[in-house]
Write a structure and sequence with these properties.
about 20% helix, eight-stranded mixed β-sheet, binds zinc ion, alpha+beta, elongated, about 425 residues, about 30% strand, 24 strands
Amino acid sequence: MKAVLDHVGIAVTDLEASLSFFRDALGLEVEAPEDVPSQRVRAQFVHAGPSPLELLQATAPDSPISKFLEKRGPGLHHITLRVDDIRAALAELRQRNVKLIDDEPREGAEGARVAFIHPSSANGVLVELKQPARVRPEPELPKTIRLGDIDIVTVSDGFFYLDGGAMFGVIPKTFWEKKAPPDERNRIRMAMRCVLVRGPRTMLIDAGAGDKMTAKQADIFRFERDFNLQQSLPAAGVSPADIEVVLATHLHFDHAGGFTERAPDGTVRPRFPRAQYVVRRGEYEDATHPNERTKGSYFLENYKPLADHNVLQFVDEDRTIMPGVRVRRTGGHTMHHQMVLIESAGKTAVFVADLLPTAAHLPEVWVMGYDLFPLDTLNFKRAFLREAIEREYLIIFEHDPTIAAGYIRERDGKRYVEPVA
Ligand SMILES: [Zn+2]
Ligand SMILES: [Zn+2]
């Protein structure tokens, strides 16, 4: 069970009087008080980092807070711990002979499920477990961008979360947290957005994380894949068998996990039965020989079966993959990381992959800590951004949680991304 401190409840005799300490002496920010008629209490939240304090004053003599004050006087009333699965948590506690007040979870505020544990089992502290209401993330539906004679469709494999510090390298959290607010485990939300190119042939560029991840990985990366490629490709009018070419920017799991799938007999096979998979040779070499630093992102099952099924095609240099689509090595993130340029009728769109994972990475020095060669990223990015502004490239972001595509503009020496609708 993973329990995270949600808030600390403190019983007070007089809310207003208690603020002379919490608000005035400590200088903490307080919210407006709120009545909870079902509990006959008035609650007031005090901000104190990720876990606030909840001051509780009774509004009736039969309130649980009145009884608590009578018996023990003002002070710590309860702590609330957030859990992912409250039923599983209660079952586990019961098995360990922990005395529960609530055998079954009940309805709490904002649709949460809550249950109390008896203080006699918790060193005298009243503990509340809370499973917040699950917010189903909005699916990202396919978006079609017409570029000359080519249709570019962004398709989603859902979202996942990566450590915010690692995503922004040497940039302090005080700067990046404004652009990418982290969750309670310091992770930021990232899209796994792939690109479907409908030109002379049907091509898919990258394929998200796929569904071969373990429960442990699902916990670490907090996948939100209720709506993934399995739904977004049909929504774009394409079936897996329609894909003729799969092109890889590189072979990290969040880009190549969807290249293969587990068959009913447990073996792993290519996910797109008629596709040839195009991969940079150097990237494949590195991905099949990971080191201590790179093995957290390279999983053989994502690309080794492609070689076994003879559907791999290697690229050794920057070149055209099909008319209108060419690759350019960026290096930096990995030695052979490449971006994809899509060109038609004098217009250019660029799928930049992990060169510029999100729009927040626009400043040149906002380079990921994950990058193996950060100074190469910096140099490539500096030159590329100038080129992208001058030639008005349409940039497609693979990981930005909200902006699928946009133009990089420069005004009065300031750069920004102008999203396209
Ligand atoms: Zn990567
Ligand atoms: Zn990535």
